[in-house]
Structure to design on (192 residues):
């Protein structure tokens, strides 16, 4: 399962940006360099993005630990644990998602569908807005403001802010979940 998840990370990193670029190229005659905004690759927006992503990840994590979410049938932290990922894997997957998904959604789709629709679409496609699982949808409503804020941040801070925020958010949550899984596993071994 781990290898499949790493492969999906590579697909996200390398293939997800292509439809976004094609949209921008076809409709706005945007070059690839303009699309990935290398000219805007600056440390300040990246640092702001990392700070915002880390901050929001801590908030989301606190909500995830609330008793309300204990009754979710398949908890994300258990899924992550079952994948047998390392912290390095989590950081790699966070980078893949940050780059690939932000180039697709923020740089590609958002200029055509707007911030609100694109943000809701983004959260829904991740499965967090599920009409059959209210508790999971509540988590989606926790994530949605983060996505809305980085979406609005695109105009002020650029795509690299969005990528950094997304990366940091995912990296913090992956790290927490991977470490919790390993700790839980070692506690279970001690009981045996």
């Amino acid at each position: 399962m781990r290898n499949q998840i790493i492969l999906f990370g590579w697909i996200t990193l390398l293939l997800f940006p292509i439809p976004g670029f094609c949209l921008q190229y076809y409709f706005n005659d945007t070059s690839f360099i303009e699309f990935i905004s290398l000219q805007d690759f600056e440390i300040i927006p990246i640092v702001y993005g990392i700070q915002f992503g880390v901050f929001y990840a801590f908030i989301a994590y606190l909500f995830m630990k609330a008793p309300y979410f204990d009754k979710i049938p398949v908890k994300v932290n258990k899924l992550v644990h079952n994948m047998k990922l390392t912290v390095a894997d989590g950081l790699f997957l966070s980078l893949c998602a940050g780059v690939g998904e932000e180039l697709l959604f923020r740089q590609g789709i958002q200029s055509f569908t707007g911030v609100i629709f694109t943000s809701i679409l983004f959260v829904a496609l991740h499965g967090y807005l599920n009409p059959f699982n209210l508790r999971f949808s509540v988590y989606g409503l926790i994530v949605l403001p983060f996505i809305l804020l980085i979406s609005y941040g695109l105009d002020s801070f650029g795509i690299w802010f969005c990528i950094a925020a997304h990366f940091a958010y995912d990296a913090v949550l992956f790290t927490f979940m991977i470490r919790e899984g390993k700790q839980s596993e070692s506690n279970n071994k001690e009981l045996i």
Remarks:
- The CA atoms of residues 9 and 92 lie 8 Å apart.
